[in-house]
Amino acid sequence: MNNKIVFITGASSGIGAACAKVFADAGAKLILAARRNERLQELVEKLNLKPSEFYLLELDVRDRKTVESAISSLPSEWSAIDVLINNAGLSRGLDKLYQADFQDWEEMIDTNIKGLLYMTRYIVPGMVSRGTGHVINIGSIAGHQTYPGGNVYCGTKAAVKSISEGLKQDLLGSPVRVTSVDPGLVETEFSEVRFHGDRDRAKKVYQGMTPLTPDDVADVVFFCATRPIHVNINDVILMPTEQASATLVHRQG
Fold it and tell me: What are this entry's molecular-function GO terms (predicted)?
């Protein structure tokens, strides 16, 4: 990965920040994108990156025009993206479908599906023309198994699964690779965002068990990205040892 250009969305925290660390340690050059620019600044300071090793983008992937402008305006030395990690995503609420908040739906669909599509559409053509590249989408066990209250979130992650499979088919004959990394319970800001900042409720999601860490997921992403060029890992499902499915979790006490 030395001097490879890795573009990470949702890089300001959680899995995105963990991916930034593991790829930076391997000598990659990072394009880090997120809505919270101050968190990106803190991340590059924490990683002790030199100015030549990173490029920051304050970016909301839901805004297609902004995404288009950000990609087309990249300096020439940053435009040949080798790896795109579509990590930006979120969940909102656990309401029954017929009682849910419309705004929660919009935010999940716009971020998890449309944002991923925008990034892919503007970056993959360059990979195809250069004859090299790898798209890694951060999916979820929710894309494989629907759980109570998950309805729309699970639908968006099922879409990520289908989009990843469809993109792989469309790229057949091209050396550009596509991978979906689909975790179970990972302790990040995910649950806090889902419950609109209710930290006590968010903590209960991981109570009595040992969830995955963002570093665990980043390790798998890095493994997928560093296989020989003739190897494409299509899909990886990883879960804590104490989780057997989207709904089956063993908790102590």
Answer: oxidoreductase activity, acting on the CH-OH group of donors, NAD or NADP as acceptor
